[in-house]
Specification:
This protein has about 300 residues and is of the alpha/beta class. It has a single domain, classed as Ribonucleoside hydrolase-like (Inosine-uridine Nucleoside N-ribohydrolase, Chain A). It has 12 helices and 12 strands. The protein has an 8-stranded mixed sheet, with helices on both faces. Helix 4 packs across helix 5. The longest helix is centred in the first third of the chain and has 19 residues. The chain is globular.
């Protein structure tokens, strides 16, 4: 179990290059593709060791298993565009049925094993961009990894928001409760009331990314297609939520976002935060400095070289 000083040290933005795994429902929304691209195009700060496909269920999938499989295939497609090939693992086909029983998957097994190669002095950073089933299952399979990882998760809304009825958290409250109670250092990146300002528009994407490379053209086209599906004939903007979770690892000197230490909140089944001031501290993002972060993202995307043929 980490002591307070060890926990506080792990809740600082890391210096130097760190190892990262990413858990993503990549087929769900376009922001995952931007986030994974930023991670892979930031070798000065992070080495992506693996990517896990996470389950999701909405109008784009027939159920969690289908959402996970489509995300797995979308991750592989994106990696071919970028020309980087970390291992990719299929994740859970369902959500946690309770707070004690893991959902077995290649992703959960890999994280439960891989994290044991790390230490509190040199942790593995686990960036969660989806329902947190895979990460919770890994912690249930091997609770000892809690002292060897730092979990950066985009989920829920800010405490000032009326509820926490947000897609990632709403899908799997049980898994969030497991992670939040595991003792693993947690960086929470809330959606509404915190990172909502990190949005872009079609004209901006066209001006900064279109024609730079195949990756940029793919991201712009996919974002425009998505917007056309729900906002045809209307003004639209798109929040690139998931980018902010990856960007926390780049946030030295608070250049991209502000955050604060708070007692780890309790995800309640009624879609509200519970509070217990005796719980360990976590770090919560409170504000995103939109323009500098968007410039960082666009600059790295535009500078990417077209990928060679896959090995």
């Amino acid at each position: 179990m980490l002591n307070e000083s060890e926990r506080l040290a792990l809740l600082q933005v890391p210096s130097g290059i760190v190892d990262v795994v990413i858990d993503s429902d990549t087929f769900n929304e376009i922001d995952d593709q931007f986030a994974i691209s930023l991670a892979l195009l930031s070798p000065e700060r992070m080495r992506v060791q693996a990517i896990y496909a996470a389950p999701f269920h909405n109008r784009k999938s027939s159920g969690p298993a289908d959402g996970m499989e489509m995300s797995y295939q979308e991750i592989l497609r994106l990696l071919r565009l970028i020309g980087r090939y970390p291992p990719v693992y299929r994740g859970s086909e369902s959500y946690l049925a309770d707070e004690k029983t893991p959902v077995l998957s290649d992703a959960a097994s890999d994280l439960a094993r891989r994290a044991m190669e790390y230490t509190p002095e040199r942790p593995l950073y686990v960036v969660g961009l989806a329902a947190i089933t895979n990460i919770a299952s890994a912690l249930l399979l091997n609770p000892g990894i809690a002292d060897r990882i730092v979990c950066v998760w985009l989920g829920g809304h800010a405490p000032t928001w009326p509820d926490t009825d947000e897609f990632n958290l709403r899908q799997d409250v049980a898994a969030a409760r497991v992670v939040f109670s595991s003792g693993a250092p947690l960086v929470l990146v809330p959606c509404k009331g915190a990172v909502t300002t990190f949005l872009t528009t079609g004209p901006e994407l066209r001006a900064w990314l279109w024609g730079r490379n195949a990756l940029c053209d793919d991201l712009v086209s996919a974002t425009e297609r998505t917007a056309e599906a729900y906002a045809k004939g209307h003004v639209w903007s798109r929040v690139l939520w998931d980018v902010t979770a990856v960007a926390w690892l780049l946030n030295d000197d608070h250049r991209f976002m502000l955050d604060r230490l708070v007692p780890t909140p309790i995800p309640e089944y009624d879609h509200h935060w519970g509070r217990d001031d005796t719980r360990p501290l976590c770090r919560m993002v409170t504000f995103v400095n939109r323009d500098p972060l968007m410039e960082e993202l666009f600059g790295k995307l535009a500078a990417a070289k077209d990928a060679p043929a896959a090995p």
